[in-house]
Amino acid sequence: MTKNKMIIKIYLALIIAVTSCQKNDGGQPDGSSALKLSIQANNTRQTVHGFGASDAWSCQFVGKNWPLNKKEQMADWLFSTEKDDDGNPLGIGLNTWRFNIGGGSAEQGTNSNINDEWRRAESFMTSKEIYDWNKQQGQRWFLKAAKERGVADFVGFVNSPPVSITKNGKAYSSDKNNYNLAEGNYSYFANYLADIALKLEELDGIKFKYISPFNEPQWDWTNKGQEGTPAQNSQIYEATKIINQTFKLKNVDALLEIPESAQLNFMYEDGNKSGRGSQVYSFFDPSSPEYLGELSHVAPKVAAHSYYTTWPVDEMASTRRKVKESIENNPHEVEFWMSEYCVLENNSEIEGNGRDLGMKTALYTSRVIFSDLAIANASSWQWWIAISPYDYKDGLVYIDYNKNDGAIYDSKTLWALGNYSRFIKPDMQRVLITRSDAKTDEQSLNSIMACAFVSSDKKEVSLVVTNYLANDVPLNIDLNGLSLNGKLKTYLTDGKNDNNLAFQKEIMPGENVVIPARSVVTITNVE
Fold it and tell me: Which residues of the chain have pLDDT under 50?
């Protein structure tokens, strides 16, 4: 062998050796090897009840004033479960819709001291025990549009009691620590909630499954930015007992959803809000003096919001692990429902300011959904503003800042949420996934995240995969004994304009599928 040939041979050997050791960012060998996900269908976790969003604040104007064809398009994007001729979903199939029961700041106009009229809201109660059932027409249009498209679960939520019965006559607080409702008016508030539940069923055919009387009671709500009131746990306790009794007397079927904690950590710690934290214990531990778990109309769940707990990523994971532990260790069986989120944080990866119709916010949101479902065991997941007029990362659908008409825009965040909401059906259960790279859910938050859900009869499966990486990743799915008939379908949301929960292809169980860079993919046999 000549010296030159020897040098070439050694050089080639070195290239082969180095190449064989290289890994891509997904932790898998480049080239032929795929990340293998094994779905353990009999190793079940929480039951998932669905996905939703709220009608605050723009639906009051859009539903009342905007052209019908644009309202119908927005409703289709949010609620439809239909597909076009090519198999692409027409909407994201939300099954939960949150109706803002307004406090009456809209009728006060500028005297409400809430400068942004979009954040004011009408109230059915015009004065103590006097009602006007023609109020909130725009929001009621969306209630009916949601029902027509198959939405089954409606939640009526309150930011502030009616201004006619609040302490300061306003829909914001003058006392940063205490409930803006005198104890003597608790019964008026209870009757108000019961009457709304009964009357909207009579007038509009909308039956509320849940009523949420309080919202983020940890915050001060003195800045006049929107309707809101703080509340001590003791005040929530006393008011809830009266509301519960009123619902019993008036035969209201709706259950009470409490306490809408402002951040997840308030579920298990005070978080510098003495008397307003540790709300799993306060309301659902029988040893607590504020225990509400035995009341007939209190839903066995703790509702809380994922704001300000998503960064850094390791702290996002640890917070959700503590949520899971607080729920699992509580003597009274309850579920965790994540009932409100949009991007409010400002960190090195993202900030709330600036409307984003693209994949950056969509991927960030998908990671939050994954974390809430896979680490915190959330049984429901709900976005905040479904339709936003703002230059902010708070919307699924965006509109021009106009009360009567304008352009409408879907977003990648809408369709990324659809990867979960469209194909994870109510009462499916999350199941364990084992991975060939041996990563835990917490270790996967900057790479490939995967969560799987199966029906009770094990005949339907939905696997949602979020690829946070800048490179494509081949995937192999082991159904591990699931007896499925036929093929699985894949749906993709990525940065391309036409890939909005777009149908890609059918694959056989066990067949490799490529997860594109910076994308969310659903692999399912759910129609």
Answer: 1-32
